[in-house]
């Protein structure tokens, strides 16, 4: 029987979750239904890539709470639409209180939309990201066992940068890889461990 620990919390539903996913319903729902599940669709990957960039230096909960506003502001993260944004759109977004008003990150999202389109001639965003799936995934027992980056996330960051992407450092890319199932960084004993179908 799994008991609550500093790393896993047993919910009222009898399911074990990491501490970060047990603090409120928003994070719990995200953990239970989204985090770590495989994503291959270009627009969905572009959204996750963009949100991870906005999260840098901030909390994921803040980004998650603002996700509906981000989707509205960035045309549901359609790369073809975002790629057309101009200086007027940048100024509009920098004045939008519902999102994170960081000019460099806003400019990075627009730049990365254009890079995503260009990447279609080289196999596409999904193929590039998933080609960096490692041979093995971490097996963390404690939250402190989860690495912040890996050789694969370092290689993915380099590959994306070579195609013109920005705000794609190895730590941000490792977080992305965990969020979209390229690696499984659920704690051993958590109810979502192995649920992606990618890793057992």
Automatic annotation (TrEMBL):
Pfam families membership: Adenine_glyco
InterPro entries hit by this protein: Adenine_glyco, DNA-3mA_glycosylase, DNA_glycosylase
PANTHER family reported in the protein's UniProt record: DNA-3-METHYLADENINE GLYCOSYLASE 1 (PTHR30037), DNA-3-METHYLADENINE GLYCOSYLASE I (PTHR30037:SF4)
The name this protein goes by in its record: 3-methyladenine DNA glycosylase
Keyword Cell membrane among record annotations: no
Organism lineage string: Bacteria, Bacillati, Actinomycetota, Actinomycetes, Mycobacteriales
Biological processes per GO annotation: base-excision repair
Binding-site list for Zn(2+): 186
Superkingdom of the organism of origin: Bacteria
UniProt key word Zinc: yes
Keywords assigned by UniProt, alphabetized: Metal-binding, Zinc
GO MF annotation terms: DNA-3-methyladenine glycosylase activity; metal ion binding
């Amino acid at each position: 029987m799994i008991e609550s620990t500093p790393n896993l919390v047993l919910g009222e539903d009898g399911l074990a979750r990491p501490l970060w996913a047990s603090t409120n319903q928003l994070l719990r729902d995200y953990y239970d239904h989204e985090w770590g599940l495989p994503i291959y669709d270009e627009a969905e990957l572009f959204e996750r890539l963009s949100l991870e960039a906005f999260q840098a230096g901030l909390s994921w909960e803040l980004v998650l709470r603002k996700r509906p506003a981000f989707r509205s502001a960035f045309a549901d993260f359609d790369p073809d639409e975002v790629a057309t944004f101009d200086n007027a759109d940048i100024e509009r977004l920098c004045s939008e209180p519902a999102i994170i008003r960081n000019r460099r990150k806003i400019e990075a999202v627009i730049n990365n939309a254009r890079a995503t389109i260009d990447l279609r001639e080289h196999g596409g965003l999904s193929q590039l990201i998933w080609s960096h799936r490692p041979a093995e995934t971490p097996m963390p027992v404690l939250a402190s066992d989860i690495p912040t980056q890996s050789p694969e996330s370092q290689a993915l960051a380099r590959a994306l940068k070579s195609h013109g992407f920005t705000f794609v450092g190895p730590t941000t890319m490792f977080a992305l890889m965990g969020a979209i199932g390229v690696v499984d960084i659920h704690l051993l004993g958590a109810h979502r461990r192995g649920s992606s179908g990618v890793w057992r």
